[in-house]
Amino acid sequence: MYLRQPMNIDEINKIKGLLSTSKNIVIVTHKNPDGDAVGSSLALYHYLNAYKHNVTVITPNDYPDFLKWIPGQETIIKFDNNAHIAKSKIEEADLIFTLDFNHFSRSGDMEKTLSVAEATFVMIDHHQQPDSYAKYMYSDTGMSSTCQMIYHFIEKLDDIEKITPKIATCIYVGMMTDTGSFRFRSTTSTTHRVVADLIDKGADNTSIHEKIYDTNTLSRIQLKGIALNNLKVLPEYNTAYITLSQKELDQSDFKKGDTEGFVNLGLSITGIKFALIFIENKGDEIIKISLRSKGDFSVNEFSRNHFEGGGHHNAAGGRSNLSLSDTVEKFISILPSYKNVLNQ
Ligand SMILES: [Mn+2]
């Protein structure tokens, strides 16, 4: 397992040196950006902007509506519908920060542009098995979120007092969403100390929670009803899974982000250690899979081995090119070889 500790003093000083004169800086994050991706990008954006750098945040594609209030999000350039501008920003950049991912392939259509960019790369990320494109790497799989790492990065740069209410809000968003509101195992006492400081610095925790989570539409609640109706439990493997077909999504006026958190419904059943959701995407001709676990069972490995994905120990993503029913059949055929670990 790769585990790289926070940057050493030498690296921090080199980055300080780089940042001591005005630079063209681009901040990029992964495809289908989540709260941590958007939150960390915008937190760093506000921080670097205060130093009069020329900063641009670029996401490969759009992100869910429930993130469309985060301070600064209106400035984000989406590569998929603004490729020309995004490409020239990347080409002109002196410095590119890649946040919340560690392999160019996770950046969707930006992959090619990034791989030929001449800028110095800085990676800040908490996923496993980082690639080696970055000159400066802050990679720590023990971290709750990239947002928490942005806090520590600013801390290392001796700038904790420069955290404004806007920066505190952006960081809080990703820490909250990536920890399932501070309940996942990645949540440490340090996570809570950081969050306490963010509240002191102006993050309105109650309001952030409402803006992210109390955003249901009637059709989304009804889609959740369909998902619950499709939920199957395999007691011999302490496993639960949900399927959603394209037809079911269409009936429910599906929008990006609507199925967020559905996979946790299965995991909330007593005794369940492994939960999945299989979502059909006819447009991309794939089945999108989200995997969650409790305890020792690694969904990162499971997804790497069987479903072309990966992520974290207890939370991962994957995909399949088979049909929805064939994907589920394949999944069920694999389970017996995990019977022991799922019954521990
Ligand atoms: Mn993250």
* Class per helix and strand makeup: alpha/beta
**Sheet bearing the most strands, described?**
6 strands, parallel
Lateral strand order in the biggest sheet: 3-2-1-4-5-6
- Average pLDDT, rounded to a whole number, is 95
Note the overall shape.
Answer: globular
CATH-level-4 superfamily name of the largest domain: inorganic pyrophosphatase (n-terminal core)
Element string (H = helix, E = strand): HEHEEHEHEEHHHHHEEHHEEHEEHH
* CA-based gyration radius: 20 Å
Low-confidence stretches: none
> What would CATH call the class of the largest domain?
Alpha Beta
Q: In CATH terms, what is the fold-level topology of the largest domain? A: inorganic pyrophosphatase (n-terminal core)
Which CATH-level-2 architecture of the largest domain?
A: Alpha-Beta Complex
How many E strands? 12
Tally of alpha and pi helices: 14
Bound molecules: manganese (II) ion
Quaternary structure annotation: single chain
Q: State the distance separating the first and last CA atoms.
A: 23 Å
The percentage helix is 25-40%
Fraction in beta strands: 15-25%
